[in-house]
C-alpha cells in the first residue's frame, strides 16, 4: 500500500508539471526575492525574467540589454540573431524553461506569448585551480580538481587532446539536478565497464547529490563492505593515466574529486608519485607502504595475544623488559591497548575537525601530554605506547584517505579476537578479511586481482613497479579493447649517436 501511494503521488506530481503553464511558473518563481522581472518597451512590449543570484549582471548589461533596446523586433528569431550569445534557444516547453532559468539563463518574453527566448548569462563562481592537498607530490604536476565540472573537464581534455575522449553527461538527484560526466576513451575502454557504470548511475533514485561520495556509496558492488571499491582522486593527471589504461571515470559537478573504476586492492597503496620516480625507488617505497599497512593492523593485536596467552614466545631478554614495564599496570593488555587506540583516534579526529594550525598543535601537544601522563599514572606501559604510536604512523602511509579510514577501523576486530583466542583469533580475523576480499568486486571485476585470479602480467605494476619498457600491455583487469600500449621491441632499441 505504501508503494502504491508513493507511486500515485509521483504520477500526480509529474502530471502537475505537465499541466503547469508559463504564468504559473512565473508566479511560482516570484515567491523568491532574487527573481527579477524587467519590462522593456521598444516597439512591442518585452519582459525579461531571471534570478539575480544565478545570472552574471555584467554580462546581462553588456551582451543582452543594449542589443534588445536599440531597435524594434517583430519576433524572437530576430532577437536571437541580434544578441551576440551563441547559447540561446527559443522554446515553449515548460520543463525546459524551468531547468534553464534555474541554471543561469534569462528568459525574454515577447508580449504574453507562451514561446520565449532563453539566453545563457550564467554567473560562474568557483575557486581557482590549486595544488593537491591530499595527494600532494614533490615531483610531477601541481594541479587539482575544483568544484566546477567545466573546469575539471578542461583539465582532462588539455591532457588528452584526442577525439576519442568521450564524455557522457547524466543528471542525478530530483532536487539538486546534479550533472555527472562519465569519461572514457573510444577504442580502448571496455564497453561493458562503461555500460555498467552508466546503468548504475542512471538507476540512482535519490533527492539530492551533494558530492561524488554519494554516488560512490550508491553504485558500489557491496554496500556493506568497509573497503572502498572505487578510487577517488583529486589529481587530473591520475584520471588521464587510468583512462589510457582502459578504465572509466566520472566527475560530479560541485565535487573536487574524480572517481575511478574498476579498481583493485593494490591500487589503494600505490601513490601516483611512484610513476615520477625511478622504478627501483618507487618499488621500495611501495613495499614499505604495504609493510606499514600490515604492521598497523597486526602489531597491537599480536602484542595483546602474546601477553595474554603466549608468554613462551617472548625471548628471555625481551620478557624482562615487558615484565618491568607492566609491573604496576592494573589493566589487562586488552583494556590498555583499547585505551591508547581510542586516545590516538580522538586526537586524530580532533586535529581533523579543528582549524589547521590549531589542529596541528592539538595533535602534537595532546599526544605528548596524554602519552606521558598515562605512563606516569600507571595506566599503560611505555612499550605499548611506542607500539601504538608506530602503528598510527604506519596507517598514515596509505595514499588514499578512504582506505586509511578502513585500516583504522579493522584494527579493533583484530584486537578483540586476539583477546579472546590469542594468535588463533588473529589468524581467524585475517582469514575472514581475506575471504571478504576474495568475494569483493569493483564494477563486476575482481577486487583482489592480480593475486586472485593470478595474473602475471599485472604483477609488473602491483607490489613493485617495473620499468616502463616492461609494461607494453594494458592491465588485464580493465579488459581493454586495445591491449597494446606500445611496441616493446622498439622501446628497448637505443640508437647510437652516429646513427
What does this structure look like?
This protein has 499 residues and is of the alpha+beta class. It is 46% helix and 13% strand. It contains 17 helices and twelve strands. Strands 1-2-4-5-3 form a five-stranded antiparallel sheet, with helices on both faces.
Properties at a glance:
499 residues; alpha+beta; 4 domains; five-stranded antiparallel β-sheet; 12 strands; Spore germination protein; UPF0353/GerABKA_families; membrane
Give a brief outline of the structure.
The protein is α+β, with helices and mostly antiparallel strands and 499 residues long. 46% of the residues lie in helices and 13% in strands. The chain has 17 helices and 12 strands.
